[in-house]
Amino acid sequence: MNAYLHCMRHYADFSGRANRSEYWLFVLVFLILYVVCLFIDYAIIGTAPSALPVLGTIAYLVHFIPGLAVLVRRLHDTDRSGWWLLISLVPVLGSIWLLVLLCTEGTYGPNEYGADPNAFYATQPPPLRY
User: Fold this and answer.
1) What's the mean per-residue pLDDT of the chain?
2) Does 82 fall in a domain?
């Protein structure tokens, strides 16, 4: 929950880095809140074709900018520019590649986007990869 609150407090901070757990916990909490809002909408409004899910739309709009910011910070952790999110515009393969980038481990130590967000938790350097 702290990762979600951290992302919401830094809703427009596109600089720095976000580790995997921060990003995926934000996504998980957002999806749970969004689904709950949609259930409430459909319980109150119903499933009429002209019915607009008001709470779901508000939940989505509230989380749009913070979600975009944490996505860019997550890409920074993998030592890539935030512009890499535009790769998702390539049909099918672009979204798969972005998902792979979001799931990969971040770079160890500081990079050009800031200090390592896992430095506090790291006790020893990772093993060398050949």
Assistant:
1) 88
2) yes
